Amino acid sequence: xxxxxxxxxxxxxxxxxxxxxxxxxxxxxxxxxxxxxxxxxxxxxxxxxxxxxxxxxxxxxxxxxxxxxxxxxxxxxxxxxxxxxxxxxxxxxxxxxxxxxxxxxxxxxxxxxxxxxxxxxxxxxxxxxxxxxxxxxxxxxxxxxxxxxxxxxxxxxxxxxxxxxxxxxxxxxxxxxxxxxxxxxxxxxxxxxxxxxxxxxxxxxxxxxxx
Length: 211
Hints:
By secondary structure, the protein is α+β, with helices and mostly antiparallel strands. It contains five helices and ten strands.
């Protein structure tokens, strides 16, 4: 699992018009090639009457799966520019489909490359980009008398509060960077005068929107 990486926030769509042609970008997160292909087919069915449904995706920790499809546009003028946008933005596990409805004016090779690149870039920006950071979930069990103090301290600390479970005792789940695990345990122990039961949980990705 990568310590951190960039991807899109989720599903999004964005339309632009260039020389009377409509370009509609559809963006989605995809963690497998099957998921990417399924998304592409969904858009193709939705826009069965479009002139072209061009696509690209980049998947895997080391971008090992990269595909681009021109869907009838001149070779290298649609899918590749979309893929180049994914590379330039450093996105992983992302699929983009750009649907085109031809408006009667030919754009030429350079014009198509710019149009598909612009559509993909604006579509991604409209959807939003997130940074996913691999964190350790720390579990802190304490008496309810500590809850108010710990909640306030956590909200103003470098650590991110994940969830609070109200059981016989209160259990607080906190996102902690792997390198700060010992620091968190020491800090929490001091805050509670050693009255907290602190255990280490699973690794999970914490998402932060950056665009």
